[in-house]
Protein: Rhamnulokinase
Organism: Leucobacter muris
Amino acid sequence: GADGAVAAVDLGASSGRVILGRVEDGALRTQHIARFANDPVRTRDGLHWNLLELYRQALAGLALAERGAPGEIISAGVDSWAVDYGLLRDGRLLGVPYHYRDARCEAGVARVHEIVAPEALYAANGLQHLSFNTVFQLAAEGPLLELADRMLMIPDLLGYWLTGVASAELSNASTTGLLDPRTRTWDTALAERLGLSPRILPPLVEAGTRLGPLVPEVAEIVGRAFDVTAVASHDTASAVAAIPSSRPDFAYISCGTWGLVGLELDAPVLSEEARLANFTNEGGIDGTTRFLHNVMGLWLLSESLRHWYPGSSDAQRSSRLQELLAEASRLGGPVPLFDVNDLSFMPPGDIPGRIDAWCARHGERAPGTPAETVRSIVESLAAAFADAVRTAAELAGRDVSIIHIVGGGSLNALLCQALADRSGLPVLAGPVEATAMGNLLVQAQAAGQVDPGLDALRAVAARSASLTTYTPGARSR
Ligand code: LRH
């Protein structure tokens, strides 16, 4: 296969990064080029992503990567969080894309369910009910939708700005609620029933498809016109692709802002039990199904820190979090457990206060100190993760013998040990940058640097990651 480096633009809900990767001796070597905050902006009409800033940072990162390795980059790929999108008319962006934590979605849910009942919707799209699924956001969109001739998901929108090619990569398209999980094609009949013009849905592409070279204006900024490849552009799909496992009976938790907990399957599970358990069937690479449940994740910690230390920097907050986690791990005795998935925790704001309110509503003692709140969050997340693993296995009729946790949560020893204890299963933690690795490896595979197939990709991921094992019951006292 071709030599050369590949670049990942990986946009998470709280930060973005540009990472350069090279496959050498069957392992992926990565180099962190740039990291930047992703701070949403609230305006009079709601909560938005600062998308132009993210794009500018992505370009700056790619330019820096090119300068550090002149002429070496053969391809770049973009992934981000799911469900959000921009509307365009004649290639021009209409309005500032909304953040999925904006409150506008509920009206859209009611509008959609008036036309298609929840059971029928699940039978059609296989998605767990999240009020921010694209289909509900579109139903709450209002007049801009009439003007639009295209909807592009966030990574596809960046891909379009980079190359001029408008497409919809499948893994992320599968989070819209407008894709048939069996055929992996747009459900244009469903779109039409909901009053959405199918013309706004771009042509679908699979991860690994070459989109094209950077357009000249972009190449000028970046320094050269390398290719852009469609990767598994849903961050969770990239993370699952890079799970460093060689065995089929693993469960995974992609733990960043969210904890995405589930199994990789050959086909969707569309049973009524799966719908009631709120399990989703999202698209993975190579025709796989990501059968998973959205559990609240590190958001509960990061947003609590934001509440306790307003105006402090990212770095200050994360060092304070380390101190609180250390303190939390020394606490003896049980801490209050709460339902991390309670909808009151969705919007930005005073999470510790809402945890207290949840406890009051449920006759539970509230945590007394920030360290105890942190311990409550960690234990409650671990309990919810373990529960989701059990439910996934039951619903899919599969055995699970190991849990892989990747993403930021894999660095949280207290969380990983609590997960092992509560699930009774060994937990293998890492890599922390699984999403970026999945992004890079799909590109390397498209370039012929990795053998075809998901197994070959995972074998490279396994050779590239250093993992920590947590054994049930090994909690130090
Ligand atoms: C994680 C994630 C998740 C989606 C949510 C909107 O970053 O992509 O898979 O459900 O963001």
In short: The pocket of 6-deoxy-beta-L-fructofuranose is lined by residues 13, 81-83, 100, 234-236, 256-258, 260, 294 (CB under 6 Å). The longest helix spans residues 370-396. The mean pLDDT is 97. The longest strand covers residues 27-37.
